[in-house]
Automatic annotation (TrEMBL):
GO annotation (BP), single: defense response to other organism
UniProt feature, compositional bias: Pro residues: 34-49
GO CC annotations, alphabetized: plasma membrane
Presence of keyword Protein transport: no
Organism: Sesamum alatum
Keyword Methyltransferase tagged: no
Protein topology in the membrane: Single-pass membrane protein
Chief location bin: membrane
Region (Disordered): 1-49
Start and end residues of each Late embryogenesis abundant protein LEA-2 subgroup domain: 146-249
Keywords: Membrane, Transmembrane, Transmembrane helix
Name of protein: NDR1/HIN1-like protein 13
Location(s), subcellular: Membrane
């Protein structure tokens, strides 16, 4: 009987591991992807460093950051425009105040040194034509106005310039208009002016016509004569700037014809120094 014994195998008796060449040529490993080796452990990333930059205060105020440069320029231009507008307004206001003060000083000098007295104006005659109250068509009334201008000053002359205006109204309806002649009125002088006023295509409403008829029956027809005249005052050899004289006369007549007589009159005037 044969002796059957199992001999233990030793480490030297294990078959050698397959080589890389044999692993590459084996059909099982040729179809699988090779497993990459594990990467080495990465080093910890240090936190970002923080830097503090200190700049002078003057440099911060003078030089804005680049992203605010356009805004800074726009604000600077706006401030410059506002400054220019403020300067212009201040200059205009100062000029107006200076003119007012100069006018007041001039008036005071005229009054104190030359004892200046205001001229006096009176409407002495008012002849009327073309006031047809029976026709429904527009009318063309005419007024011949006589104005008495008195200069009571002994050292002041008055130059009446062109571009004057004389208008006649009834109940705020302008009936006729005209101008005064340009002339010079010497010291202590009375000048009588006659001017012809004309109107064209004046439409009178029913209420105005009724009021005129009633006033005509009562022989008290009120009219308003408004005069505006540019003048210059002469003091010695010096002339003032152009001054506007406005005169308003309330005149009441007894008829609407050329033989009308003035029943009453009252004149007020105002002087505009500029």
């Amino acid at each position: 009987m044969a002796d059957s014994r199992v001999h233990p195998t030793t480490a030297d008796s294990h078959p050698p591991p397959p080589s890389s060449s044999s692993a590459a040529t084996s059909p099982k490993h040729s179809t699988e992807h090779p497993i990459p080796p594990n990467p080495p452990p990465s080093k910890p990333v240090p936190p970002p460093a923080t830097y503090v930059v200190q700049l002078p205060r003057e440099q911060i105020l003078r030089y804005p950051p680049p992203e605010n440069a356009r805004k800074f320029q726009a604000l600077t231009r706006r401030k410059n425009r506002r400054s220019c507008c403020r300067r212009c307004c201040c200059f205009t206001l100062c000029l107006l105040v200076f003119l007012v003060i100069a006018a007041a000083v001039s008036a005071g000098v005229l009054y104190l040194v030359f004892r200046f007295k205001s001229p006096k104006y009176t409407v002495t005659d008012l002849a009327i034509k073309g006031m047809n109250l029976t026709s429904a068509a527009p009318i063309s009334p005419g007024f011949n106005v006589t104005i008495r201008a008195e200069n009571p000053n002994g050292k002041v002359g008055i130059y009446y310039l062109k571009d004057s205006a004389v208008n006649v109204f009834y109940n705020d309806v302008k009936l006729s208009s005209g101008v005064l002649p340009a002339f010079y009125q010497p010291r202590k002088n009375v000048t009588v002016l006659q001017t012809a006023l004309t109107g064209s295509d004046v439409v009178l409403g029913g209420t105005v016509k009724t009021a005129l008829r009633n006033a005509q029956n009562q022989k008290r027809i009120p009219f308003v004569v408004k005069t505006k005249a540019p003048v210059k005052i002469e003091v010695g050899s010096v002339k003032t700037w152009e001054i506007t004289v406005k005169v308003k006369c309330d005149v009441v007549v007894d008829a609407l014809n050329q033989r009308a007589q003035i029943v009453s009159h009252d004149c007020d005037y105002s002087v505009r120094l500029w």
